[in-house]
Amino acid sequence: MKFYVAFTIQMILWSVFYVAEWLSVKDHIEYKWIMFVLFFYLAFIAARKIIQSRRLTLFITSFSLSCFFAFKFLFEYLMEFF
Question: Do 20 and 35 meet the contact criterion of CB atoms below 8 Å apart?
């Protein structure tokens, strides 16, 4: 159950990152990387508080990030048709 909660919280954080990235369309790429690092750290810390294992936290964070980017590319690909 802890894994599911941590994964869900991280997916919410990645969604907020996507909205922030969408709103900062005119920013330089360096600022977007800084924002990505901050959101990654926030997601890692949030999962770390729930899971209490660094190795498992890193796995869940990388898994949620992979799922987020897969959903993002799928969503953007499907939006090209509509």
Answer: yes
